[in-house]
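Q: How do we represent a protein-ligand complex in a form that can be generated token by token?
A: Start from the inputs.
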Amino acid sequence: MYKVDHYIGGKTIAATGERTAPIYDPSTGAVQGEVGLASTADVDAAVAVASKAFETWSDTGLMKRVSIMFKFRELLDKHRDELCEHVVKEHGKVWDDAMGELTRGFEIVENACGIPEMLKGEFSQQVGSGIDVYNIRQALGVVCSITPFNFPAMVPLWTIPLAIACGNTFILKPSERDPSCANVMARLFSEAGLPDGVFNVLHGDKVAVDHILQHDGIEAVSFVGSTKVAEYIYHTGAANNKRVQALGGAKNHAIIMPDADIGQAVDAMIGAAFGSAGERCMALSVAVAVGDDVADEMIAKIKDQAENIKVGCGMVAGNEMGPLITKEHCARVKGLISEGESQGAKVVLDGRGYEGPEGKEGGYFCGPTILDKVTKDMSVYTEEIFGPVLVVVRVDNYDEAVQLVQDHEYGNGTCIFTRDGDIARNFTRKIKVGMVGVNVPLPVPLAFHSFGGWKRSIFGDHHMYGPEGVRFWTKIKTVTSRWPTSIMSGANLSFPSSD
Ligand code: NAD
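Then emit the structure tokens for the protein with nicotinamide-adenine-dinucleotide bound:
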């Protein structure tokens, strides 16, 4: 048993209240540790420390900030195995998948090392007689990021490096289900020379989040999680005058056209549907087959591969898919499969009976599942399942397939498998989804682009990281200047123009 505490002002600090949450090993169901949950007093303490640190950090030279970020990047690599072990043991995903998550997170740190380039302002010379105008981007103040369980390292890294490199001071409120990675990152930041109080970790639940949302000392809140909570965070934060970006859930469709390379599409879909047991916001959860021939061939091939996926504990080499995050979530996933079946879907591959490998029967396992003949009114189609479940919808033509995607409430990611350039171009232009793949199943943008969905997959105006991230973490100031030698004498009360 271990205990996870807050990290505030460069020190590990126990939560002041009595409340804690258990940390489960999802592969056995055993409690392996506990995390202290923040009281409102703990939130106040973290904000006070971060506000104090902002006075100096926001004034620290840009190249100094960059050198700390470089050092942090180096230390992350050195401690890759330690971070990976926390991800696997607390989240449950398999080792290689966790390593992939780390790589994608580290790329955002690398990108943040280039912050001088991204913070360059704009300058307009001689807009009027002796007058120059320029823009500068300045840090907001104390900012906060609230993150989900499914990427305990990568999603925090979507926000931390850029926000800090921009000159903000930061409070991370990670998921209470897999909290350990956050503390390792805090320790490594301290080792990298980040001044105390610039990066703080506050563990907690709704009590902490609600206090953050109405705290006058916090300027901006970034959130990633389920849509219901994202919508609440967005409206509550905005009502309290905070800048908010809140990314929510997803239901990502892949359209498989008759001219597609079905073998290639199937290989891609296996990883995208069942990787990380489907607990990815970019998981491919709906396959839309255009024509019965495509559906029959595709389903036979997917089944063939999916039933051979090695499911088990993430720490065991060779396993390809781990357990789900909690007992309740596992029961929900299995319940949705049963609901789909009772509503008329055909269960082609059934993961409900899989209880885990020998000796791990208490784990929260569900095997890969495929449901065919799913229709748009079924709950397995309308709801985000967040499990290893691929639903197949059969349609007659491309237009019908597109209409399905357009009508769904979520718009995070989508992709099309085709060899037809016209169709692909039409799809990328018309589709109402934020991240689109053409023969690419998980179109997660790299660090120098930005990540974000449309429709009810996001609340707020800015996507995550990349150029959008810099805009979110800074505010713009425009300076208009004229020096004494060029100032004309005499007052003029009319509105200034550029003459
Ligand atoms: P969640 O919404 O339950 O929790 C997210 C965070 O919010 C956690 O830190 C949690 O402590 C906090 N929280 C939970 N309930 C709250 C409440 N009622 N009030 C205030 N705070 C609350 O999400 P989760 O189960 O941890 O993560 C899975 C969800 O996240 C899925 O829906 C998935 O699609 C989504 N997700 C989205 C993206 C994206 O980029 N759009 C990325 C990753 C995950």
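The longest strand covers residues 131-139. The mean pLDDT is 96.
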